[in-house]
Write a structure and sequence with these properties.
single chain, alpha+beta, Beta-Lactamase, Phosphatase 2c, domain 1, Heat Shock Protein 90, five-stranded antiparallel beta sheet, 18 helices, 35% helix, elongated, PPM-type phosphatase domain-containing protein, hydrolase, HATPase_dom
Amino acid sequence: MNFTRWSARLPGTQRRAAARSEPTAAPDRRGEGRGAVPAARAEHLTDEPPVPAVDELPGREVLDRVPALVALVHGTDHRLAYVNEAYAAAFGARPPGAPARDALPELRELGLLPLLDQVLRSGKPRTLKSRKAVDGRSYTFTCTPAVREGDRSGGGVLVFATDVTDHAEAAERLRASERRQRETAVTLQRSLLPQELEEPDDLRIAATYHPGGTEAAVGGDWYDVITLGGGRTALVIGDVMGRGVRAAAVMGQLRTAVRAYARLDLPPHEVLQLLDGLATEIDAHQIATCVYAVHDPNEGRLVYASAGHLPILVRDESGTVRRADEPTGPPLGTGGWMHSSGSIALGPGSTAVLYTDGLVERRDADLDEGIAALERALAGATGTPQVVCDRLVRSAGVTADHDDDVAVLVLQHPARTGPAAELFRNAALELLGGIEAAPRARAFASGVLTSWRFPADLHDLGVLAASELVANSLQHGTPPMRLRLRRTDRRLIIEVTDGDDHLPRRRRAEPGDESGRGIAIVATIASNWGCRRTPGGGKAVWCEFALPRGEKKAKG
């Protein structure tokens, strides 16, 4: 083997050869006598032995002194011809003449033998980056063909291994740091989302969230479920534009604000109006999309307002899917827009899906195509809300390395039959006014509660609450007036509506006052009470009583 020729392939040897071949400049004697090198010294310098050319260097001595690991194999079975001192120090002495699979087991474990075959066949060098060897250190292996002219034995391969342990360990520390940062960001994101969804009486709900990408910059997707009282439920989903901790922080503030505004029991468009102003105050350069919807089991509809968000999809009992397209306003944070509310039917047996753009948006497809694909997936998705959630996510091809955050909120209004239907009942009475309205309302409430077989104490409290709410409406409200009683598997709800939009408030009545005690009495005896303005003008005042555990078990 010609080690000298192979040694010429090592880094730096070409530069040294080039430097050796440059002609030596002629001495300039014009400066003699003015600090020039004396002639005797110049003659001494010219007597130094010349630097040998690369071809004159002994190749084995060069390779032995190289700090990198070097091995030479020869022939189609890669018989070991040589290892340098660095290789022997790392893996031990290796007897020449044996095939590489026996003589170099460390290369076999690293999967390097097929690479030797490729280099020998192609005549081109190949590199295997940063592989951890049996000695615990990491190396980058470069295999270079070494073929002599006239050699019919198949030629050889020079294996050159550079120790990159420090670089590999630094890269692993960096990856570990990025993983920790991502885990922290995802933990922050998830901590800002509801840890447990509220469970309304009339709806079954499930949600899922998938953080996008592999970096620490999670997005600002969020969802929430808020029970408003009186059997009504608010549902919200939104997406803060951008990624990172800033987007997550803005999302957390908006979610908190939504819960606060929801307690005011405002119409959906008014909630978005308030959120729009708040988003501008939080960060004038940050915008967000959002859908806020309210479900009222008495109406069988979903009333919603959208700020630049994707349309709600509703699948009815027959499997037909509809979009709630209009009205849609600009995103939150843009300002200067009056939002409006719309509605879509959500009767028994229906399923509604609220989602963020990560579920349907792809770089290589139009957004409408993604929504249409989601509609097709929803049309065939049956089962519990959680099952529907999982099926929609799978159908959209969302995986662990998906490049965008995905939030999905699924709600079902189940169609109840048999014994379950007995736990959900409604009764209503139109109040015409006059002195006979209050006694008529008490008699109606008493008859309904008796037919629903409530215990005597709950029956009496329900009649008293209905009487006080009706009396308050007769005194301060205007026609049309209605008394509505509703029972679920968890509570009794009593509600009175009238045409006046002045909301009552609880106040302390003085001993001499002839009025002002009705709401105070209702607030004292009921589990919860509240009031809200109705969309067509007027108001609704309601209260609710939690059912005793024994009552729920007996009726279940």
